[in-house]
Amino acid sequence: MKASYYTKYGSSDVLEIKEIPKPQPGDKEILVQVYAATVNRTDCAMLTAELWIMRLLTGLNSPKNPVLGTDFAGIVVDIGKKVTRFKPGDRIFGFDDMGLSSHAEYLCLSENKAIGHIHESMSFETAAALSEGAHYAYNFINKIDIKEGDHILVNGGTGAIGSAAIQLLVHYGAVITATCRKEHSDLVLQLGATQTINYEEEDFTQKEFQYNYIFDMVGKSTFYKCKKILKPRGIYLSSELGPYAQNAFLAFWDLFSNGKNVKFPFPSNPQASINLINQLAKQEAFKPVIDKTYPFNQIKQAFEYVLSANKVGNVVIRINTDE
Q1: Where's the Enoyl reductase (ER) domain (predicted)?
Q2: S-S: 289 plus which of 65, 115, 163, 209, CB 3.0-4.6 Å?
């Protein structure tokens, strides 16, 4: 089978499509023919390994797993003899931020991974884009107690995480302000925000209005910059550790605080994220934003685009197209 393969860390130039053996499912595993996957921030972090903490997970000097990919949409083609959740022919999608090796024509995974069935009317490209951003967005939301009418500022409303968060926050009844470029304002409003701030012209931290929560989906601000626009018991959450990993330390310190504080949205329980987002998608209350779709032989270009930090929503790669 064909797979996108890398043996050293670096830019998209270290990737190559090569033939490798098709995996065989174990007793509790399923074999999936992959039709689509995304190229996302997690994939890029694993590719470049610029953060030292990433190398602790992926390999200190070189990648332990040479095939990237954290999400997928495809068809079950074979199952192990002890599998009970799925059967051949099932259209499924799934996610694991520790890696699934889904940038390949086939993958094997445990039936106990975070997996959902794809609704009949949904394309593989849309299903592939359901998971990653929504999982991280939901893990912001489940760390706090949102009440209907709470005012929330989403810094970075057009990324995969931010665009998913806006739609999920609408589900929870929040009033949303989101930062974005001027040309993306209409999209962000369509997703459910009530107001946008053009971050290229305005500094949202200098606004007078105060929010119950600030979601920094791009990790480009800090708690101290945002503190004055938080309500007296407001909470700041960020997708990044922050300068000198301050968000993790502040989150621990603020366990003992009754004032403005920080929570770190450590992502967990991807199956719960899959279940929620699948339900909302079925109800047409959630639709992932897809910026570009690339054929598999252009996966380098897909990575280059994501690494440029210019994408809006998700970038999808089509892998098998013979359905």
Answers
A1: 10-317
A2: 163
Contact 44, 303 (CB under 8 A): yes
Q: Is the pTM of this model over 0.90?
A: yes
The three-point CA angle 152-158-161 to 5° equals 70
Domains and CATH numbers, the chain: 2-130+288-318 (3.90.180.10), 133-263 (3.40.50.720)
Q: How far, in whole angstroms, is CA 274 from its chain's centroid?
A: 12
Q: Could you read off the pLDDT of 3-33 as tens digits, one per residue?
A: 999 999 999 999 999 999 999 999 999 999 9
DSSP per position, 64-81 = SS-S--SEEEEEEEEE-T
CB under 8 A, 24+ apart: contacts of 193-196? 193/154, 193/157, 193/166, 196/157
Give the pLDDT mean for 194-204: 96
